[in-house]
Amino acid sequence: MKRYQPEEILIERGEENTPVVRRTLDHLPDTPVRIVEPGWEREAPPRDGTDSFAAGKRRLLFTRQRSTFLEHCPAGTSGLVCCNYLVVSLISNCPMDCSYCFLQEYLANNPLLKVFTNVEDLMSEVAKAVDRQPWRQFRIGTGELSDSLALDPLLGFSGDLVPFFAARKNVLLEFKTKSDRIEELLKHDPKDRVVVSWSLTPPAIADTEEHGTASFAERLHAAQRVQAAGYKVGFHFDPLIEYPHWEEGYRDTITQVFSAVDPRRVAWVSLGSLRMTPALRAIARRRFPQTRLLSGEQILCDDGKWRTFQALRVKMYRTITAWLKEAAPQAPQYMCMETTPVWEKVFGHAPSCDKDVARMLTQPNLVAS
Question: Scanning 43, 121, 335, 349, which has its CA 20 to 30 A from the CA of 83?
């Protein structure tokens, strides 16, 4: 996987000596650096060019998060089954550039790659939330607005987060990634409280639609290494992509994954259909005119997003969940952003509430490392 190299580093005044800034400057001594005033990006004129979103990724801004870090996952939309997942974001935008990524629309007006320097505020906020409810099991992820690990060799956030979460028995931290940047993780003991999960598509899709990511083989090798180091691993087949010969592609992918890792040490596997708003479809068509994602059978759903035609996506879910059950019978499976009727068609039942899904994913189900 290619190393991220920004064209310019922007540091908000007052943040110059924060640990994450110092670590990054040590790794990028030759990159131009500019000190900017707080709020600078709101008044900065857009750069010329036909793809301002891609240009924004090449400018790395260090700033403070002035809002709260801990939020409920926005995928918990009314009418869809929710897994009660919480998210924290230390980074906004991603060095990778998947053709289906929702950030193209969500961050279209603010595409700088931002890093929030006040990680201590994040940990304080999380501690207040989880320590006062020791009876409740939490799942918290860092991969909502960026890849969790792609920039870790520069930023080193895993060195802050792994020891913090490893010390708490009622919360699981999830790093969600398409990278192979796991070297920093290997320096720490997760104490069974950290899940490293990979988003996977068959190599034929990863190679053409997931630009700047680690290859399928690189992701798999990284999963083997972190599992051997004591981390739980997870896998997200999300989005599922319908393409010619998808059955062979996904069957082979699943076979390779569970031949490489110990299926008894897989924390969870999720599935989700390709889903795009009309605006995101237009952006993807403009930025990636060669994409094959928009050529399948898709319909506009009640939540305003285009999805694979229901009969076809139920067929895909049923086919792939059966293969997963065969390969990793102990690994809990769930779907992201799907309706109760689809759950019932795929699994034969639907959770009665979001706590059912959360309980399934946090109960001890793995053999010891």
Answer: 121
